[in-house]
Every structure is written in structure tokens, then in C-alpha cells.
């Protein structure tokens, strides 16, 4: 059996590990904390391919991934016994200026030309879909095909699903170095001094991906802090995700609570809550759905998104180190792209081929990413 080590048990690492196991590989997953305990569980759980998208290969990746989500969630729910509450609520995106309104018209047209559902609504039409919207919007983009799941339930499901497979999960340890000899990976070294032998290594360590020793290149992935609030249910029933172009959003959950987010902060590996970040979120709530503005948060937290230098994922084999394969730098799209990217990584690891064109996301596309192994 092909021996493979996956570094990281967030949704990216889990999806790759599961697909590798399904293809007959012997898989070990090394995770410093708990599966899904970082960016995966800290997210709002949106399965959104069209929101804030531009016509690009990244956009088409997201659309294809979204189409695979029902099958992926059904498999994960069966393995874990955990309900993930996948819903296709749709997203209303507020255009808060005339410029945003004009840009929205362009976005709606090109997305319709791509065969997707998108519509520009006036405030009255939007209010019929979702009562209680703020009064500042010039118009709204309506994206009915967008969805969400319970990301906190997802984090719990990852551990339970792994336990139902032959995948070996090593928790409470971390990989500090990718080991290699003569241009090929030989395994990994862990923080406790132990090593694991492997013929393939999948790097899915999220915001920490670039900190490992032994990589053949500088990996331009940095942590970007995103803060979140959970608001209690209110007399106003939020039936759809409501968002702005500034990255603020309100996501109604199955238990009646509402997740309010988020920020994009270059704060290094600092996961603390900042008053400035919370103020931005509260301002967004007031602007989007004023009835929710006075509610006291039940929870608040922050997570670190792994963002690449060009904001697109890093996917595929390293051209200089045989056996090293990347799935990182997913930014805010880690949950969205997991089903397809996990399968692509598994195909590349097992057969060296994938039907999906991953090359636009190849790891050596960055200037200055050349060899830097120590």
C-alpha cells in the first residue's frame, strides 16, 4: 500500500485523506490540535461560489465544487453520524452605493452568461424575500444557488468520520519538517522527535503551511484573522444569508442563532479578539439588518485563514521535490473547495494524473518561490 502522510486535519487535509483512503492508500494524518479546530470550525460555513467572485479559473473551481457538495456532505454525515445542516438559503448582497450597484449589474450579467442564477433586485423586491433589511442599499444581488452548512458541526464530524476509517490520526503533535533524500520525500519529522516514513506527503497545514522546514520553496501563505459573533435568535426570522461587498455577512443557523462576520486582518498568528474588529462587525449588522443590531453576542471568536500571495489556492505536486503535494492557501474558500480539491490531490498522489486542470493553482507560479530548503 502507498504510505502517505497528510499534514493537517482541517477540511482540506480531511478531504484529501478521505479520498486517498478511498483509493486504497495507507494514510496517516498529523494534527497539532483537534480536527477542524482552526479555520474550519471558526468559519461561517458558507458554500458560496458566486459571492464576491470574478470570472476566473478560481471561480469555475468554486462552482464545480459547490455542485459536488450534496454528495460530499451525505458521505460525511453517513461516516460521522453527525448532521451538518446543509442548506441552500441563497445570498442577498447589498449594494450600498451607486458604484456598487453598477458593478453588480455587470456581475449579474456575466454570471448569467456562465449559466448561473443571479438577479439584480430593487430594495422592495429584496424586502419581499427577506423582511427587515436595512434602508441604505441602492439594490441587491440575489444568488439563490448559494448555500451553507454548520461549520462547528463539521469540525466535530471530521474526528468522528476519521474514526470510522482505517486512517491513522495522530493528535497533539505537529510536523516540523518534511524529510527528503535525492529529490524525493521520505517522510516527516514531528515536534516530539519522532519521524514518520512516507512515499507521499500532503501539505494541508492551513495558515501554518509555510512554517515547515524542508520545503523546496518559499511558500507564500500568510494567516489572516477573521473574527465572528454568534447572535441569539430574534423576533425577525432571517431566512437567507445577507452580505455586503465589504465582507460583512449574517448567516442564519438551524438552531435559530445568527453568525455575524467577518474581518480580514493581517495580525500574524494572533487569534485574539479585537475591539476594532468587533466594531466593524457590529456596524455591518446595523447596516444590513438593523433589528439584529442591539442583540448581545452569545459567543465571539477568531480564526486564521490561510491566504496565498495571489488569493488563489495552492494545489498540486512540487516540481522540485517528488512526492510532496500541496492543498493550502484556500483563504475564505476552504470549506467550499474541499470536495473537488481533495479528490484532485488524491488522484495526483496515487496516479500522478487528474482530470481536473489544477495547473493554474500550481505551487511554483509565484515569483521568488524557488528553492529554499534548509
What is the name of the CATH topology of the largest domain? FAD/NAD(P)-binding domain
How many strand units? Answer: 19
Order of helices and strands: EHEHEHHEHEHEEHEEEEEEEEEHEEEH
Whole-number tally of structural domains: 2
**Unreliable runs, pLDDT <50, ≥5 residues?**
none
Oligomer: single chain
Computed CA radius of gyration, to the nearest angstrom: 21 Å
How far apart the termini lie comes to 30 Å
Topology:
Elements: E1 3-7, H1 11-22, E2 26-31, H2 39-42, E3 46-47, H3 57-67, H4 69-80, E4 91-95, H5 98-113, E5 119-121, H6 123-129, E6 139-143, E7 147-148, H7 151-163, E8 168-171, E9 175-181, E10 184-190, E11 195-197, E12 200-203, E13 221-231, E14 241-244, E15 249-252, E16 258-261, H8 275-288, E17 299-308, E18 314-317, E19 324-328, H9 334-351
Parallel strand pairs: 1-2, 1-12, 2-8, 4-14, 12-19
Antiparallel strand pairs: 3-7, 4-6, 5-6, 9-10, 10-11, 13-16, 13-17, 14-15, 15-16, 18-19
Helix pairs in contact: 1-9, 3-9, 4-7
Amino acid at each position: 500500500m502507498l504510505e502517505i502522510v497528510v499534514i493537517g486535519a482541517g477540511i482540506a487535509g480531511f478531504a484529501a485523506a478521505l479520498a486517498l483512503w478511498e483509493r486504497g492508500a495507507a494514510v496517516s494524518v498529523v494534527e497539532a490540535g483537534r480536527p477542524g479546530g482552526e479555520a474550519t470550525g471558526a468559519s461561517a460555513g458558507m458554500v458560496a461560489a458566486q459571492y464576491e467572485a470574478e470570472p476566473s479559473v478560481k471561480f469555475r473551481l468554486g462552482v464545480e465544487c459547490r455542485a459536488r457538495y450534496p454528495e460530499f456532505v451525505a458521505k460525511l454525515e453517513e461516516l460521522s453520524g453527525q448532521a451538518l445542516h446543509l442548506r441552500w438559503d441563497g445570498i442577498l448582497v447589498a449594494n450600498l452605493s451607486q458604484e456598487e450597484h453598477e458593478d453588480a449589474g455587470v456581475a449579474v450579467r456575466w454570471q448569467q452568461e456562465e449559466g448561473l442564477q443571479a438577479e439584480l433586485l430593487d430594495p422592495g423586491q429584496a424586502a419581499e424575500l427577506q423582511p427587515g433589511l436595512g434602508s441604505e442599499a441602492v439594490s441587491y444581488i440575489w444568488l439563490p444557488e448559494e448555500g451553507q452548512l454548520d461549520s462547528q458541526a463539521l469540525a466535530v464530524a471530521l474526528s468522528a468520520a476519521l474514526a470510522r476509517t482505517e486512517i491513522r490520526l495522530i493528535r497533539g503533535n505537529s510536523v516540523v519538517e518534511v524529510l527528503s533524500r535525492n529529490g524525493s520525500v521520505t517522510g516527516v519529522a514531528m515536534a516530539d522527535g519522532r519521524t514518520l516514513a512516507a512515499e507521499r506527503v500532503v501539505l494541508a497545514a492551513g495558515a501554518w503551511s509555510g512554517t515547515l522546514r524542508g520545503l523546496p520553496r518559499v511558500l507564500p501563505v500568510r494567516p489572516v484573522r477573521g473574527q465572528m459573533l454568534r447572535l441569539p435568535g430574534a423576533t425577525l426570522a432571517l431566512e437567507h444569508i445577507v452580505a455586503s461587498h465589504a465582507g460583512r455577512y449574517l448567516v442564519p443557523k438551524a438552531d435559530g442563532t445568527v453568525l455575524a462576520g467577518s474581518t480580514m486582518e493581517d495580525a500574524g498568528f494572533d487569534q485574539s479578539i479585537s475591539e476594532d474588529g468587533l466594531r466593524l462587525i457590529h456596524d455591518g449588522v446595523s447596516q444590513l439588518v438593523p433589528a439584529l443590531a442591539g442583540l448581545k453576542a452569545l459567543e465571539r471568536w477568531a480564526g486564521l485563514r490561510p491566504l496565498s500571495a495571489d488569493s488563489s489556492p495552492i494545489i498540486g505536486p512540487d516540481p522540485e521535490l517528488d512526492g510532496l503535494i500541496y492543498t493550502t492557501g484556500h483563504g475564505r474558500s476552504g470549506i467550499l473547495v474541499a470536495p473537488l480539491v481533495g479528490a484532485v490531490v488524491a488522484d495526483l498522489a496515487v496516479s500522478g494524473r487528474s482530470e481536473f486542470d489544477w495547473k493554474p493553482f500550481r505551487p511554483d507560479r509565484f515569483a521568488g518561490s524557488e528553492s529554499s530548503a534548509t
